[in-house]
Amino acid sequence: MELGFQSPALGPENRLDSDKLLAPLRAILPEARLEWLPLPEVPELGLLLLNQDYPQHTLTPEQSLRIMQYPAYWCFCWASGQVLARYLLDNPDVVAGRRVLDFGCGSGIAAIAAARAGAKQVVACDLDRDALLASRINAQGNGVVLDYSEDFFADQQHYDVILVADVLYDRANLPLLAQFLERADEVLVADSRVKDFNFPGYRHLGLYRADTVPDLAESEEFSRVNLYRGIAEARQL
Ligand SMILES: C[S@@+](CC[C@H](N)C(=O)[O-])C[C@H]1O[C@@H](n2cnc3c(N)ncnc32)[C@H](O)[C@@H]1O
């Protein structure tokens, strides 16, 4: 299968893994390709993502349904992921020398930025095994090493920082905001989905703007990303 590899750090040995990712995508979008794409807000990094010119406006109802049934989140870099990655690269002290977990890593964008910013260890965590495979390829393509977890609850390790980018679209994840504060000294949440974000321990850091890559033509409101910082209660005293 043809791939748009342009990362100097990726070679033919990555082809097998990327073919594993492409196969389920092609079952939905037969013309789908994976391309190494630049990120407008994070030009230091690139990611293997769905081709920019995928036929978003000509999907049949059946294709749209199949996309919903197999949400390949990992083949997009979400606006929130880009904003969080930008923040970490601009503020490396937040993660430098620290143990970090990226919850709902998708493509691995925030985890990779944390590793680039000098984190001591970064665990990319996602319940979707394809996301972990994509994160592995993307980490290699950006010259960083990550660890991986498919179950946040499988161990009770404590982290210095937990990163959370665009996982609150699923309301079932909202109660996790409290649990993150029990599992880490600090939590950084990037989100464009929740209105009236008001959770104990979290405060607003800023409002940023980014678009999902490749473009999903989402409503403009989802390009406005809020960043929140949560501090564990014990550290607030
Ligand atoms: C919209 S994507 C965001 C990916 C990436 N953080 C970004 O910003 O580009 C959401 C990701 O969170 C993962 N996810 C959602 N709920 C999760 C959960 N409870 N545990 C682990 N991963 C979860 C999904 O599988 C998906 O890969």
From TrEMBL:
Record-linked InterPro entries: Ribosomal_L11_MeTrfase_PrmA (IPR050078), SAM-dependent_MTases_sf (IPR029063)
Entry-linked SUPFAM superfamilies: S-adenosyl-L-methionine-dependent methyltransferases
Keyword match Transport: no
One GO biological process term: methylation
GO molecular function per UniProt: protein-lysine N-methyltransferase activity
Keyword terms: Methyltransferase, Transferase
Name of the protein this chain belongs to: Methyltransferase
